[in-house]
Amino acid sequence: MDSDTIATGHEVDIAGIMQRIPHRYPFLLIDRVRDIHPGESAVGIKNVTANEAFFQGHFPDHPIMPGVLIVEAMAQTAAIVVIEGLENASAEKLVYFMSIDSARFRKPVLPGHTLHLHVSKEHGRGKVWRFKGEAKADGVVMAEATFTAMIVDKTD
How many Cα atoms within 13 Å fall on the side-chain side of residue 95? Predict the structure, then answer.
């Protein structure tokens, strides 16, 4: 997909997300992506509900979204940023974590929170991309991380 033909700041709904990345329930952790600047940045939206499967075990009497899943939601948002910036963007690409750095979990994410997953490219060339992400709820930073991912074809 030519980035010149994609409107900067556009939005992708759940159907569009599922066309672009291979994740599915229960591991699809974003509901919408807005303010997309292809190849640069976006804001993912995750509506955290009490029905999330991970709350059954984390923790039954005090549900808290696992930090690693917050980082995964940031990475899924970043995958949309990358895919939107590529020519011939499609779900034929996979995005693999290479590293997670400087992860900080500031406040617990609870049922009822709406996470705004702000991701921005720090470096991106070829197959390797580095992003900075922040997860916010009600304007408060709940978690942050820097992560590196590799983009590969499903056939590789």
Answer: 31
